[in-house]
Amino acid sequence: MTSAHHQQQAPTGGAPRQRAPRGRAEVRPTEHDEVAAAGSELIGGPAGRRSGDAGWWTPVRVTVLVMLATFALGMLQKLPCYNGAWFFGQTSQYAHACYSDIPHLYQGRGFADGLVPYFDRIPEDVSGGMEYLEYPVLTGLFMKIAAVLTPGGDDIVHREQIYWMVNAGMLMVCAVITAVCVSRTHRTRPWDALLVAMAPAFALNSTINWDLLAVALTAAAMLMWARSRPLAAGVLIGLATAAKLYPLLILGPLLLLCWRAGRWRAFSAALGGAVFSWAAVNVPVMLTAWDGWQKFYTFSQERPVDFGSFWLILSQRTGSAIEDANTYAMVLMVLGCAALAAVTFSAPRRPRLPQLAFLVIALFVLTNKVYSPQYVLWLIPLAVLARPRWRDFLIWQACEVLYFLGIWMYLAYNASGDKHHGLPPEGYQFVILVHLVGTLYLCAVVVRDMLLPERDVVRRDGSDDPAGGVLDRAPDRFVLAGHGRRASDDSHAPEFEGGYVRWGSPSAG
User: DSSP string of 168-186?
Assistant: First the structure.
């Protein structure tokens, strides 16, 4: 039997490189995943021999339709709040688990009064002490565009409802873009994107905040990298970072993987594109409205330990505030990144980009001093690309749904006064632990796939890194001594001399 390991080692010098994704058959989850096959019985059973003649029902189109249905269900879940709980019942918006920042910040950040974010100071009686908008520039622009599209009038409640609807429509576009990009990133596995489109946590959290803008841009960046367009990928990473900070972390996995493969030109293009696009969005605001621009960064730094983090558990259990949470979180993040670097350079095969991207974002989520429920949206597309196994994905999603319900019940408990209807602190600490354990479980199976590549479902058809772009099937140029591939495995792989790496010939890169 020909191993996937040797199929990865196809020479890249001389003969043209084999384009594996175009030469392999499309992978259908119902043929290789027992949970997907069992679930398909609800819609007629696994794919049959005629399923290739689907006509109009291509994977991308099916995924888009499912995503639209899932998003619509998520909007329906917010119906009790839309009908009044946002405006007339503080406790009921938690009891119905339908809270959203969007209608509250329409007036609370001055959009209802036509204020320009970052430039206009928000009146204290409206904002509750927040002088400027505490979101990155591209997200602020998104919010302002939705405010411009919201019609005026004297009924502020009706205007807040319409503002939420306008934002929901714009976020739905972001959701569809995310699903399409995930479907097209792995050429032979387009059906995996159904995991994104059907994710329960996606439906529940999509309209809580504006995170889907950064999620869509990040998914598009992953697609561009998979298509060997590093500059475009970098530009999109920069724009995503201008909408939310977390996409910046993906440059770390790109650095490690390009280092191992010796693909410095590709990494330089991605880094340059990211710096340029981020600066193009941010520098004009920095120069003209510094106080407003920096609010997001100062607020993130000064924000105390908050919901969803294990720091909150420690604080509540000890009864004292953790003053140095930023420092502790940074130390844990650095140690975790160092461990990921060690695994990257010592794994038997170079890890796939989505695996490292998922792990670094998950590490940030696990060590951060706050975990808002919508942060799960950051991880869903990357989790699907990193580990497209329905069982593992659904286990993790079940943990996230439990956390989603738990945080609102905890807030209802705090908001109900002496009645204490909801989840007490001990119960909330338990659901935080469930969220942490579920995320750690998914991280563990991804790390196992990296250390035991024969367990990686994406590589079972002989693929290397379908989302890797220029990294796909590239020979190693640097690995830790005693690890990785041997020179005898591939004439273009690096040779080992005295326990150190000897760089391969330039033609191999």
Answer: HHHHHHHHHHHHHHHHHHS
